[in-house]
Fold:
Amino acid sequence: MCRFGYYPEAGFRELSAECFGELKRDTRLPLSGVEAAYCGNFGIWGMLGGQGGTPGQLVLHEAGVDRIPVMRIENGCASGSTAFFQGVRAVAAGFHDFVLVLGIEKMSGAPTGEVLDAMAGGADYELEGTMGATFPGIFGIVANRHAFEYGTTRKQMAMVSKKNHDHAALNDKAMFRKRMSIEDILSSRVIADPLCLFECSPFSDGAAAVLLGPSEIAGRYCDRPVRVLSTNLVTGQYGEKQSITSFLPTSWAAEKSYREAGVGPDDIDLAEVHDCFSIAEILHYEDLGFCLKGEGGPFVETGGASFGGKVVVNPSGGLLSKGHPLGATGVAQVVELVEQLRGGCGRRQVENARIGLAHCLGGFFHGDVASAVVSILAKN
Amino acid sequence: MCRFGYYPEAGFRELSAECFGELKRDTRLPLSGVEAAYCGNFGIWGMLGGQGGTPGQLVLHEAGVDRIPVMRIENGCASGSTAFFQGVRAVAAGFHDFVLVLGIEKMSGAPTGEVLDAMAGGADYELEGTMGATFPGIFGIVANRHAFEYGTTRKQMAMVSKKNHDHAALNDKAMFRKRMSIEDILSSRVIADPLCLFECSPFSDGAAAVLLGPSEIAGRYCDRPVRVLSTNLVTGQYGEKQSITSFLPTSWAAEKSYREAGVGPDDIDLAEVHDCFSIAEILHYEDLGFCLKGEGGPFVETGGASFGGKVVVNPSGGLLSKGHPLGATGVAQVVELVEQLRGGCGRRQVENARIGLAHCLGGFFHGDVASAVVSILAKN
Structure:
């Protein structure tokens, strides 16, 4: 993956170049040996007046990938994860041996309001986005409700952001590498009550890629392959009476992925989860089973989600600090798991990392429809 | 499918409602029995300031589809065909029994220039679109070159449009149902030399859907199922020296699909092909093997591509006359094949239709990269 950041001058070609370079160094398979490619991309750049489609076609032929199926997969903020899900399925079904999954997004170069408006086009733009219900507003409501139902404090929410900034300080691919105190975070300006600026993931440009192949032969092409135990996508409707303090599709996708992998929440050593806002990560602890419902606040406050705790959540820095180029995010999560399970993360290495989980969320309608992807990977 | 047209007041919900209604009448499977859904959508509406993502999530939960994988598939103008390709694969691999493929696009309500600009975002926007190389210009160049290399006449190109308008006049789902003379077509205003207005497919709104399932059990849920023999997507690079008068990905995808289906071009009774411009259909005759290279002009002029000819091409009216809501197009082609193979097309019924072919093209870069999908269906 490239270092996530704000690169107004870069297009898809420039953003993806570093990925292809790293991929070539990491595998003995030439990119011309790739048999299918799935490109996760939300499409923000197109909505801002730039390249609006076929990002995979655009960049892959320059990388030497040719005469194979290439398509873009979009699923809101879960676009990259969904591309990964499709790539794994293509190999698992035996359609192809080697599949490339690329995630890419370009969000820089336009005023904040325009980017937010474009992102709202990944929720229900017609009925909600046009009324001002963009993502920060939606998650502000969720935060207030979680505080009301479970007593979750502002400090606990800010702890998520502090922790992830601490992690990102050790990751040279992260957009923000500066540590922050709880006070820094809570004194930053309010974006959507109660959420402050440093509790919101940034607009970012970036790209990430992974190469998938059958486990039986992966070792021939790569010195340190990692195993995909399971991956599931669930798009679901919570039902009108369901509280907004739980994203049920996360639980449904997690349940399937735990079952297929033969593991449970207690077996997860590290997790990359969709911390688009501080409060979101607290919900995910609960929905993924890392703690009981309503206990996400105390869980992070007591160190359960960092080094030395029950499960290291977002060792990369997460969306909040590593950055959130929408379509690249889900693929970058997998890149982090791979590096951690290989033991190559240096100062942010999770000790004895054996099993990792990646989780993304996309879309959000009427407080009750979203997609979630949960993937579980293991050390080989 | 809904009747394609220009519906500035309709959103994705309104456009898809008729599809779901027809689907419910045509099958005994409730939509809640659908196990995965692929939504083909280019994303024009988002680029024009409307719903920019997750169209499947948006409309499917209202149709009663829930707790399943849903995603959007984008591949330029081949988005709908690529969604179909993915849907067929999901069933073929055994991941799901019943898969819904929805194609949808909304293009109305914005000035022509803005829509063209958005569409150019499905080709190479950065290096070509910004220079004015939108699709009409690209295909105008192709037309001039085909005329230069093979002596293809303006009358032959106009014949494609006349034929497709004749067909559409018999199709109550078509956007344009008015017959046109060669003179009407050639005297309409020039859009991109030499192509005239009535040789260019229109901007359209529309949606189409098909339900896929294993052939062994399809008969339980549907009185008149149709068989998918093969479907292939190839994204490819022609190589710098290749002429622009052939879209090689079409030939590559066709070759694979013919081989897998165990049929050849001579076995095809009808074909729905990507006639985005009159000249395009002439290239497709050649690339799909319906006639020799360079003979597409005489082929259509002598009636080879209409009723009573070798193969009835675009009995629905094609993109030129039925309309071209980008993401819906590839799925609507399959809808036409299904209706024809069932023998339910009334006055535009192809006699003894046994085998049909659908073809879409998407993306176009440097005159040498594009995606093509070719699917072959047979009467059950």
About this structure: The radius of gyration of chain B is 19 Å. Residues 226 and 380 of chain B are 5 Å apart (CA to CA). Chain B touches chain A through 62 residues (CB under 8 Å).
